[in-house]
Amino acid sequence: MNRARAQGWLFGGSFVIAFLLQLMPLPQFLLPMKPYWVGLVLIYWAIELPEKVGLGSAFLLGLGADVLSGELLGEQALRLVVIAFIVLRFRARLRFFPVWQQALAVLALLFNDRIVMLMVRGFSGEPMPAATFWIAPLTGMLAWPLVFLLFDDLRTRLRAGE
Amino acid sequence: MAIARTDNATLFAEGTVSTLRLIVYLAFAVALMVLDHRGSYLEMLRHTGSALIEPVYRLAAFPADVARATRTAVATQDRLVSENRDLREKLLLAQARLNRLDTLVAQNARLKDLLDAQKNLGLSVQFARLIDVDLDPFRHRIVLDVGAHQGIVVGQPVIDAYGVMGQIVEVLPNTAVAMLITDPTHAIPVVVERTGLRTIAYGSGAIDRLQLPNIPISADVKPGDKLLTSGLGGRFPAGFPVGEIRSVSTDQSGMFAVAIARPAAALDRSGEVLLLRDQPQPYGPPALQEEIGPPANLAGPAPATATVSP
Hints:
- The complex is a heterodimer.
- Chain A has helices at about 1-25, 35-50, 55-70, 75-90, 90-95, 100-125, 135-160.
- Chain A is an all-alpha fold.
- In chain A, helix 2 crosses helix 7 (about 135-160) and helix 6 packs across helix 7 (about 135-160).
- By secondary structure, chain B is of the alpha+beta class.
- Chain B has a domain at about 125-280: Thrombin, subunit H (Beta Barrel).
- Chain B has helices at about 20-40, 40-50, 50-75, 75-115; strands at about 125-130, 140-145, 155-160, 165-170, 175-180, 185-190, 200-205, 210-215, 225-230, 240-250, 255-265, 270-275.
């Protein structure tokens, strides 16, 4: 009982922290390198707890992110739904990849996410972003092992704590 | 959801999430975006949720604030002393300039009285502090700690000590979001100080660049020219520094000159900003003025024949 609650806290807390990290300021030259934290955390939970993360929850999460960033309602919802769908579709394989291979898959996912973002912004009439736009998937890939190992460790601790 | 059973599915099983659901959600998201693009429902939603959004912003900015406070706290006495001296000198200089300016203002007022001019250059500003939050690295927005409760409205120009920073685009009860002049979707009407040439400076998406893509090829523009707001368009009052031309070249068609300018404001460094209170001009052409010329009591006794005004 207690363990389930702790799991729930970890699940919810991870998204809250991801939102905060997303909003967190960085020095100007580091800004384009900020990984898509919300996306990374969603990928992790979609791989590990698919019964909790569906397209619906990804959509709601995206709406929350849109309200926070205040640009276009539905943009991040669309991006996160696409991410969740691909991860859930290939989950059986992604799960058993070693971490470095997972990181490559994450790179592909985030790269795809940037293309989706570019399409959305193109349709809403915004100009082409600078070349630094494409750096974030790379840093996302580098951040993936961190996210993965951190959450895995936290979850094993929770389990062991029983 | 049916996904819970995937553990005993084969390794290469497909269809654990149905494509139909994906299509439904994607369509829903696209519909939302289109609706929002037309009706800006997001703004309403943000207004309703502002009680939740504003604390989140402040929470996200908190670590950076703490870091800055710590840095100030552990700054060496030496540096603080030298900084203090520096600021004192600057203040002295500014004060001296201001004193001279006072006489100029008085002189200006006298001359304006003489001309019976209607326009007033009075400046009413409001101080605001930045909430250090990054909404999106590719859109140049800043979040300020004042909002509707402090009387902020959409469209107010934002300036700092060196020049124009941008304008308010969204107001929440206690926070406001401003778009910087370097945002790729921003444009500001400017005038070249030296020649009086009017043009438009567009944001480039880089924090230290403005683009002026449509200058006539024959126009006299060179690096080092200062750009001021022209006051056209009715959004920004005239005469504020916007930037300085860094390079001029011809565009691909050879029909126009293209200039790159550096913003005058410290866009990525300012921690405090000023919001101009009074909107410079209403939209549209100014109202017709009844009579132009010196006031009747100053004009000498007009000869009866001089009925045609010069």
